[in-house]
Amino acid sequence: MRLADLLHSGSEQLKKAGIEEHEVDARLLLEHVLGMTRTQLLLRAESSPAAVEVTHYTRLLNRRIKREPVAYIIGEQEFWSLPFTVTADVLIPRPETEFLLEQVLRYAQKSNFRSGKIVDLCCGSGIIATILAQETHQKIYAVDISAKALRVVRQNIVRHGQAHRILMVQSDMFDAFAANNQFSLVVSNPPYVSHADVTNNLEPEVSCYEPHLALDGGVRGLELIKIIRAQLDDVLMPGGEVFMEIGADQGMEVAALFEQNTKSGFGFETVSIQKDYAGRDRVLHAIKKER
Predict the structure, then answer these.
(1) What is the pLDDT of residue 181?
(2) Separation between Cα atoms, residue 94 and residue 88, nearest integer Å
(3) Which of 257, 252, 221, 223 is nearest to 242 (CA)?
(4) pTM of the model
(5) What architecture is domain 88-288?
(6) How far apart, in Å, are the Cα atoms of 215 and each of 25, 207, 244?
(7) pLDDT-derived band of residue 232, with 50, 70 and 90 as boundaries?
């Protein structure tokens, strides 16, 4: 059997199991088993695999047939053209979060990268903190309630040489921080999927394997967003900014939430919803009023 034959067989098995991206997934799994790049696999397509490699590949195919995501099987997902470690304790990075980062780096006021603290709230695997540290050379707080998620963060910030710039904090939102308006930039991809969708409407790769703690945002998916909005009154500096990834059907509700003044009286003077490249509501951008 040639590697080309093994790859074709794997793709066909995944196709029969209803895996839409069967060709790509079969190739990624085989590359992982062989420790090869795509180019190396193409160049060695006519060579024969070892029996142990065939056995290993078959095991991984069976896991994928059960709808376990490829990223969890191989322990890695590309994001921002970089490889990031992922486990079942964190969400798999998605293109929507790349769009969030693009908005931050394009529209955030430069002064807010220097005047106060920067936080990646609900940091998961630490992709946002890592990219912000890499792109801005500033210190970043990576905050998550999950100790298991923070262990993945540690792997990623070390892997990409950003451990000296990123401080990990285990906290339920901002509970670990004093209410002294210390943050100038908050970037967050919080849980924003409705409980009903998490329970009934997601693909099995998501509903059966990705952590519900990082997905479930309550009845309308807004429960955690409302908590963040309330806490920002006390932790965000006047003139500070927040960028938040939201659901495609949440733009109006999230904008209204941030346009309301709360007991502090400061509120947000600029609130906008940025649409992604598919024209869907995707990122909240809000600037807190000056004193």
Answers:
(1) 84
(2) 15
(3) 257
(4) 0.93
(5) 3-Layer(aba) Sandwich (3.40)
(6) 24, 9, 14
(7) very high
